[in-house]
UniProtKB/TrEMBL annotation:
Primary location: membrane
Family membership: Belongs to the polysaccharide synthase family.
Pfam families, A to Z: Polysacc_synt_3 (PF13440)
Subcellular location field: Cell membrane
Protein name listed in UniProt: O-antigen/teichoic acid export membrane protein
Keyword Signal: no
Domain of life: Bacteria
GO cellular component: plasma membrane
Keywords from the UniProt entry: Cell membrane, Membrane, Transmembrane, Transmembrane helix
Segments traversing the membrane: 42-65, 77-103, 109-131, 143-168, 227-245, 281-308, 320-343, 364-387, 407-426, 438-458
Membrane topology: Multi-pass membrane protein
Amino acid sequence: MAKTFLVNAGSLSASRTLLALSQVLVLPVVARFLTPSEFGDMAIAMSIVIFAQMLSDAGMGRSLIRQTAYDHAEWNSVFWLLTGIGAALSIVLAALAPVWAALFDRPPLLGLVAVLATLPFLNALSAVAGAQMEKDGQFPRLALIRTVAGVLGIATVLILAVMGAGVWSLVAQQIVLAGVQTIGTMLSSSFRAGAPRNFTPLGNHIRFASDNVGVSLIFSAQRQGPVLLVGAFLGAVPVGLFSMAQRFLTLPRNAVAGPVSQVVYVRMTKVQRDLKDVAEVYVASCLLLAVAVFPPMAVLAGSAANLFPFLLSDTWGQAAVIFALAAPGMMIEVATGSAGVMLQAMDRTRLRLWMVSERAILRTLAVAAAVPFGIEVVSIVISVFSLVYLPRYVWFTQQVAPVRQRAVFGSMAIAAAASAVSWAVMSYCAQVFGGWQMLGLACAALPLSWALAILPQIPTLRRAVAALNG
């Protein structure tokens, strides 16, 4: 049991990290065959699709995981409910495609949204099967399924981009990714859907899901708000540049924070009666996420001015500035992001809805005020807001557990200091060295930056892993 957390989180994180790195490696190829305008169209199309995808699960999978006893009739009822919801969302999304295209005055959006409308249905089909695998602790198998799906998706986008498919190569990647994950999850899970009859009451799950639907929609709005605002006020090319920067900014959330949150959630549901343990698990997750995420983000941000044009072509040079300015905010959000998981595990979904709503509204207003001044100002605002709002964010965790604000800030302090040194050194080197030299320096600097973040706090890290292992 001592290595349970590391095995589960490590397998998921390794899978997502492999895929994230693979996507980074293919971007130099794809970026040379697609224009910023095409990336912008895909970002705008996915902004509405992501809303539908959030609704397709509605958090009912997480609600099922919380149940101590397994009732197949209950799980089967949730499966058919989600299948119906997923089908309805896909139909509505396809019907909205011409409206979305007209709203942004971008005719290509019609076809893009219509095809991407299949994604919510695919997600809904696999939600219950995926929840069963998580409840059974089959995280390594889930990681394998995601790896296979990701590799096939990457192969798809590469082949189609080189063949001249343009933005449709990105669409095909999303379809292949969702399709393979759905098929793999349904075949690997021990859950098997029965006939759609003998439905059981789902009032408790629906209550849990209703709050989570609100959280998912608002959280999605927070993420997609800058994309939509930049697209509406500045046009497709700036939103394409912003989208490219976002692909790098979201790497730590997808590769590290997502897997860690899945495992932390299961751990917190087991200790939810001991509030001190809950607080300890949250601070431990902040520490490990900061150590894992801060150094690579700092190295890349310091090298971005050199590496982005070198790897992606000069067309994408401005994306480096966007990335570097928004990186500190994303680092803070990723490191502290388990707060929402904690409130969900403690069945304080209404409080979580309040927290996410407040944060999303304030952040969107700040971004909206910055948009007229340009995309660089938007990126600065994203970072400043994350830092300024952090004490309030911690306040929400204190409503359910004795989380000390000093402990949260302290958990990130050493990693932040080490990352600041790495960022400064790499920024200086980016002005002196060329493309291949800078790439080699960045690869060499990353383990050194991690060492600076890890070595001064090895005993603390051991205690954090122990808290997460239980």
